[in-house]
Write a structure and sequence with these properties.
With 569 residues, the protein is α/β, with parallel strands linked by helices. Helix content is 36%, strand content 16%. The chain contains 23 helices and 20 strands. The strands form 4 sheets. Strands 3-2-4-5-7-6 form a 6-stranded parallel β-sheet, sandwiched between helices. Helix 9 packs across helix 14, helix 11 packs parallel to helix 14 and helix 16 packs across helix 17. The radius of gyration is 24 Å and the shape is globular. The structure holds thiamine diphosphate (TPP).
């Protein structure tokens, strides 16, 4: 029996195991929406802006490891997805974006709400399709999911002319894809593996820097075994946070622009850097010519395009991180690097990361530490972009992959709320906290309505400093305190939340922090806390732009931290 294009899309989604999609309807995607009630197993979450749909699909994908799905109509609906697609592209997040399109006969004629969305998104998608007939839809969708999820994951767009959704064809979901030109490297080259292992066995001051590729490959356990076997300290990138337990004795936290002083010192002094599933973003390298000046570099990555792109590499290994680590684990010698680890611990004493100044003011670092305490480290934490994002990365400790969800490559303000929504839908049994800035949340604040309509119990901590804080920090440090366009007037977030029928409270003092968080978590449903934090607090340490990572600036005033750092012996 024949089915309509719209039915074929739904059947294909079910065949791919899709349970939920985030979207917003309009004329040219209406046949698809009209068909949805025939498939009650496909949950549709109506967002309030298509950017929210893309970020929600992204948050869902990062929280679950599955492919996120978003849907928009043509024209403005499709262009509203663009930021979210770019965000997923830069952070290698598997996503399918469906867009409505004018009927085939109107394409290229500037029809109402016709826009060349495959053209617009060409540089920010892993692949894109315009579906030109109902008969090929199933194969297109099969391919699209395969491409999105395999290899280095990324977003794939499928543009759906309105009449293709209405045309009829036989539905057969293909068993396999036929993509002869699409090759996924798996195991690293044996000669390179041998070479790399020999360097690991000989190194005196080895260091692992691990990125999101470890999480994507599911290689956290292999990373742990490898690091333990050869006793190699581990630092991570921002998006690598959680790929190695941060309470592990070999964990030295995040490196880079706002990384710890000791992680950056380690980068500056290592004699063998083993870079795993990361891409040497400039936020990690600082001044390229001064990066890891004493080190030979082994770079393990699935994407050959990343090798040698920013940094010279001595041993490139193209392959799946998990498989490569498994192979190297078999060859690596059990080693101890006592002097090197003692040196790192000494640097940790000299440059402690988790200080919170004494006193009564409500410091954001204190709030994040209390969040760790309140959740016992067992939550999915999603952030916006700015200072609050860095404080979360620095002061919350993540012990498992997929629990820290943040926009890294694109650094998209407005990512937080919809991404948290997607994360909570994907992992309903987990407590999901959004730590957002007063600026970031205002970019997608309308999604509060989605939380209510679809009963999505995200807990929200707004770090309200009355500024576009991260930009203000740069103005303070590098533009002689000229605060141009960064003081930010905000609505009363408690009243805004209440207007959306979301419970909320305001916190202005340290002693109120923990009780408010406990109240939020005990509450059945979404909850917002407006934390009125110290307005001009800065994120330290900081590697100034253009400087080497060893030249980090530290907080002007320091006290010894009592914050527990390591629990694993
Ligand atoms: C969409 C977008 N516009 C502009 C920026 C540049 N930017 C980076 S951080 C930041 C300030 C963020 O302010 P807020 O969300 O209040 O967080 P805070 O830094 O105060 O914690 C800005 C404007 C961005 N990253 N994304």
């Amino acid at each position: 029996m024949k089915k309509t294009g719209a039915q074929i899309i739904c059947e294909s989604l079910i065949a791919e195991g899709v349970e939920v999609m985030f979207g917003f309807p309009g004329g040219y995607i209406l046949p698809f929406y009209d068909t949805l009630p025939q498939y009650p197993q496909l949950r549709h979450i109506l967002v309030r802006h298509e950017q929210g749909a893309a970020h929600a699909a992204d948050g869902y994908a990062r929280a679950t490891g599955k492919v996120g799905v978003c849907v928009a109509t043509s024209g403005p609906g499709a262009t509203n997805l663009v930021t979210g697609i770019a965000n997923a592209f830069l952070d290698s997040v598997p996503m399918i974006a469906f867009t409505g399109q004018a009927a085939r006969q109107f394409i290229g004629k500037d029809a109402f709400q016709e826009i060349d969305i495959t053209g617009i998104t060409l540089p920010i998608t892993k692949h894109s399709y315009m579906a030109m007939d109902a008969a090929s839809l199933a194969a297109t969708i099969k391919e699209a999911f395969y491409i999105a999820r395999t290899g280095r994951p990324g977003p794939v767009l499928i543009d759906l002319p309105r009449d293709v959704q209405l045309d009829q064809a036989e539905f057969v979901y293909p068993e396999k894809v036929n993509l002869p030109g699409y090759k996924i490297p798996t195991r690293g080259h044996p000669t390179q593996l041998k070479h790399a292992t020999r360097l690991v066995n000989e190194a005196q001051r080895p260091l692992i820097i691990a990125g999101r590729g470890v999480i994507i490959s599911g290689g956290s356990e292999e990373l742990k075994q490898f690091a333990e076997a050869a006793q190699i300290p581990v630092v991570t990138t921002l998006l690598g946070i959680g790929c190695f337990p941060e309470n592990h004795v070999l964990s030295y936290g995040m490196a880079g622009m706002h990384g710890s002083g000791y992680a950056n010192k380690a980068l500056d002094n290592t004699d063998l850097l083993i870079a795993i599933g990361m891409r040497f973003d400039d936020r990690i390298t600082g001044k390229i010519t001064a990066f890891a000046p004493h080190a030979k570099i082994i770079h393990i990555d699935l994407d050959p395009a990343e090798i040698g792109k920013n940094i010279r590499v001595d041993v490139p290994i193209v392959g799946d991180v998990k498989a490569v680590l498994e192979a190297m684990l078999k060859m690596v010698e059990r080693r101890q690097h006592v002097a090197w680890l003692e040196q790192l611990d000494e640097w940790r004493k000299q440059h402690p990361m988790t200080d919170v100044r004494d006193g009564t003011s409500l410091l954001p670092q204190y709030v994040i530490q209390k969040l760790y305490e309140a959740t016992r480290g067992d939550a999915v934490v999603v952030t916006g972009v700015g200072q609050h994002q860095m404080w979360t990365a620095q002061h919350y400790f993540f012990h498992e992959p997929n629990n820290f969800i943040s926009s890294g490559g694109l650094g998209t303000m407005g990512f937080g709320l919809p991404a948290a929504m997607g994360a909570k839908i994907g992992r309903p049994d987990k407590t999901v906290w959004l730590v957002d800035g007063d600026g970031s949340i205002q970019m997608t604040i309308q999604e509060l309505a989605t939380l209510v309509q679809d009963d999505i119990a995200v807990k929200i901590a707004v770090m309200n400093n009355g500024f576009l804080g991260m930009v203000r920090q740069w103005q303070e440090l590098f533009y002689e305190k000229r605060y141009v366009a960064t003081p930010l007037s905000c609505p009363d977030f408690v009243k805004v939340a209440e207007a959306y029928c979301i419970a909320a409270t305001r916190v202005t003092a340290r002693e109120e922090v923990l009780p408010a968080m406990e109240q939020a978590m005990a509450h059945d449903g979404p909850f917002l806390i407006d934390f009125k934090i110290e307005p001009e607090e800065n994120v330290f340490p900081m590697v100034p732009p253009g400087a080497s990572v060893a030249e980090f600036i530290e907080a002007p005033k320091k006290e010894v931290s009592t914050w527990p750092r390591r629990s694993t012996p």
